[in-house]
Amino acid sequence: MSRTPLHPTREQIELPIVLDCLSDPIRLAIVYQLARQERFSSELRCGDFSGLSRKSNLAYHFAKLRECGVMQMRVAGTNRFLRLRREDLAARFPGLLDAVINSAAKDADRLQLLSGCVRSTRTEA
Amino acid sequence: MSRTPLHPTREQIELPIVLDCLSDPIRLAIVYQLARQERFSSELRCGDFSGLSRKSNLAYHFAKLRECGVMQMRVAGTNRFLRLRREDLAARFPGLLDAVINSAAKDADRLQLLSGCVRSTRTEA
To answer: Staple partner for A41: which of A87, A99, A123, B75, CB 3.0–4.6 Å?
Structure first.
């Protein structure tokens, strides 16, 4: 079984909402860790972020990132797979995602971006 | 007489706070108009933005932009002069300010960035 929760279309992605969404340190950490793992795999599982915060809190942040168009969530059975919507963001706001990720990387310690760092690179569904 | 309100030092500028500050459409419009006028003058006066919103509302947004480190405010007599803190932002978060401004420019109509557009380019104190 596969079902996909609601995502905005590319055209529905709005700059103020994206900036607001990325202004939360835990959501910045999720985006940073997704970007950091892209060289190994395009997707990560929700469970891979369990070191960042409580499960219910993470579910809230995943939903915010999905609803603002930064992240794609794919449901397969009991797993939820996450990836950045790079192409859509690049089309709407060229250079923005990398500028935010690189800015966050400069402050990785200060922002505690690697607390509960993702160790898994599994993508099997 | 000249007095300068409190500004964060370069090192005190924090990414989540900057992103949160820029997630407001009126503040995006202020930043966009400041950037747009940079070729004519480095500073604009608070009164130049009177088409954007009410005076008290603008004062609130100017304070937010100053306190997060995006904008420098200089007081001279009864005038307040505003400019972007380009060097400080470029040092802390390379590429971020331009990525946000260029992204906003793409959606200038949708975000109503040019409502009450600045016409003045005066900088005399």
So the answer is: A123
A103, closest residue in chain B (CA to CA): B93
Give me the mean pLDDT over the A84-105 stretch. Answer: 97
Q: What is the pLDDT of residue B124?
A: 42
Closest CA to B49 of B76, B70, B28: B28
Q: Indicate the angle between helix axes B55-67 and B25-36, nearest 10 degrees.
A: 80
- How many other β-carbons are positioned within 10 Å of the β-carbon of residue B72? 19
- Mean pLDDT (whole number) for A23-49: 92
Interface contact B106-A95, CB threshold 8 A: no
Beta bridge partners of B3: B75
3-state secondary structure B90-102: HHHCCCHHHHHHH
The three-class DSSP label of residue A44 is: strand
Packed helices A15-22 and B15-22: angle between N→C axes, nearest 10 degrees:
150
With an 8 Å Cβ cutoff, is A91 touching chain B? no
The sign of the CA dihedral A77, A79, A80, A86 is negative
Q: Are A19 and B22 in contact (CB under 8 A)?
A: yes
Q: Does the interface ipTM go beyond 0.85?
A: yes
Distance from CA of B18 to the nearest CA of A (A): 8
Regions of chain B short of the pLDDT cut 50 = 120-125
Q: What is the pLDDT of residue A113?
A: 86
